TrEMBL record:
The name this protein goes by in its record: Helix-turn-helix domain-containing protein
Alphabetized UniProt keyword annotations: DNA-binding
InterPro entries reported in the protein's UniProt record: Cro/C1-type_HTH (IPR001387), Lambda_DNA-bd_dom_sf (IPR010982)
Domain HTH cro/C1-type: 7-61
Coiled coil: none
GO molecular function: DNA binding
Amino acid sequence: MTLGERLTQARTAKQLTTQQVADELGIARSTYTGYETEYREPDTKTLIRLAEMYEVSLDWLLTGKSGDDLPTLPPEEREFLTWVKNHLTGTFFYDFSKSPSTRKKEMMRGLRLIYELEKGRKPGQKQGE
């Protein structure tokens, strides 16, 4: 699927017309239609605005792949990473991204331990019960 096809798919999924999108972007309808037909290429700023408008990632918009696509990972690993994504705050990710690789490995081992403990716990069960 091409960028133009993904733009069309995302727009129709939001039930928007090309005119509505063009108005939101502050451009002519013909300019936006050119993006979908691949007669024109949107600049970076426009791509960012489109991704936000359509509530899709830039990665998906440009390549058709998503950061959530983890096709090569085993289901257990995918489940763990989803848990990490859903249970950690931005502070952790900031610290994680600034850490050396050895520290990152230690942090992930700790997270996996917490995850395994949580996974075995019944809903509403408190730690130590």
